[in-house]
Amino acid sequence: MNLHFDPIQGARSIAMKIGDAVLDLISSVPDTAEHPSSAPRNRANAIRRVASAKALAAAGGLALPPGPWGWLTILPELGAVWRIQAQMVADIAAVYGRSATLTREQIAYCLFRHTAAQAVREIVAQVGERFLVQKASVRALQAIARQVGIDVSQRSMSRVVSRWVPIIGAAGVGAYAYYDTSKVARTAIEFFGADIEWLEGPPQAAADGPVEVVPGKAPRRTAAGAPATKPAARKSGEASSSRSRRGRKPEAS
Q1: Nearest CA among 54, 39, 76, 20 for reference residue 181
Q2: What is the predicted pLDDT for the residue at 103?
Q3: Does this model's pTM top 0.85?
Q4: Alpha carbon of residue 59 to chain centroid
């Protein structure tokens, strides 16, 4: 039987399905058995190593079917790895004492900061050592999911050849899942170890700093955290001297 498979069409067909899977993934916050730790970074790194090994095994095992059948395992592979990563993020949040305030926005940021950086800027922005978090609208979550779907489907196309070589392909897919999970963990460690503030408005607007208004000039933003400056007031002595010079008549020669 001659089985024809178009990898380009395959990538297009899974992009929207990936987006739906992302929305399902971040619709709830995983439970965790972890507790606040006196050495949260050490415990978080231990969680990272275990989760990365699980992701490697899950992705590598699902990538074993050859040819077009390997393409059919892409969504299950991604779903398995993302669930491991989401649980890992929840566990890391717990060791930093953040379980009570863990939200879908925070999970989305940790999972997809390196995949859809532009999209997650709509819900989380970093200002120095602080993170500003904005409650995500449905549109913002859909934008993140859409961007993740596009990026992941494009990366999947780059692995078309490996999907046709089962053993080598499985090793490569597993190694990438290990690397990706480690990267998510490092993002979570940085995030939950910092100060986190919730905002009413978009976080990026706050990160851009206040607006400086100078009479006679166009408004402009100052650096983040810098106060808006006011036009310098003229010293009273200088003002009196200026008025005196303007009102003085030239002496007759």
Answers
A1: 54
A2: 93
A3: no
A4: 22
CA distances 160 to 8, 62, 154, 188, 219, Å, are: 9, 15, 10, 31, 51
How long is the chain? Answer: 253
How far apart are alpha carbons 226 and 231 in whole angstroms? Answer: 15
231 or 79, higher pLDDT:
79
DSSP string, the chain: ------HHHHHHHHHHHHHHHHHHHTTS---------SSHHHHHHHHHHHHHHHHHHHHHHHT-S-HHHHHTTHHHHHHHHHHHHHHHHHHHHHHTT-GGG--HHHHHHHHHTTTSHHHHTTTEEEETTEEEEEPPPHHHHHHHHHHHHHHHHHHHHHTHHHHTSHHHHHHHHHHHHHHHHHHHHHHHHHHHTSEEEEESS-HHHHHT-PEE--TTS--EEPPTTPPPP-PPPPPHHHHHHHHHHHHPPPPP-
120 within 8 A of 109, measured Cβ to Cβ: yes
> Nearest Cα to 25, choosing from 101, 88, 97?
88
- Strand order through the sheet with 130-134: 124-127, 130-134, 195-199
pLDDT digits (tens, 9 = 90+) for 120-155: 888 899 898 899 999 888 887 888 888 888 777 766
CA–CA distance, 199 with 7 (Å, rounded to integer): 43
